[in-house]
Amino acid sequence: MEEFLQQLTNGLAVGGIYALIALGYTMVYGVLKLINFAHGDLFTYGAYLGLTLLTSLALTDRVGFALGVLVLVLMVMGLVAIMGAILERAAYRPLRESPRLSAVVSALGASIFLQNTLMLIYGARFQVYPDDILPAATLDLFGLYLPLMRVLIVLASVLMMVVLYLFIQKTRIGTAIRAAAIDQDAARLMGIDVNRVILLVFLLGPALGGAAGLMVGLYYGQINFTMGWVYGMKAFTAAILGGIGNIPGAMVGGLLLGVVEALGAAYISIAWKDAIAFCVLILILIVRPTGLLGERVADKV
Amino acid sequence: MNNRASLVVAGSCAALLAVAPLFLNAYQVDVLNSIGLYALLALGLNLILGEAGLFNMGHAAFYAMGAYTAAILNTRYQIPILWTLPLSGLVAGLFALAVARPVVHLRGDYLLIVTIGVGEIVRIALINDVFGITGGANGIFGISRPKLFGVVIRQPQEFFYLIWGCVALTIFLFLRLKRSRFGRALNYLREDEVAAEGSGINTDYYKLAAFGLGAAWAGMAGTLFAAKMTIISPESFSFWESVVLFMIVILGGAGSIPGVLLAAFLVVGLPELFRELAGARMLVFGLVMMVMMVVRPQGLLPARGRF
Question: Which residues from chain A sit within 8 angstroms of residue B285, using beta carbons?
Answer without folding.
Answer: 109, 112
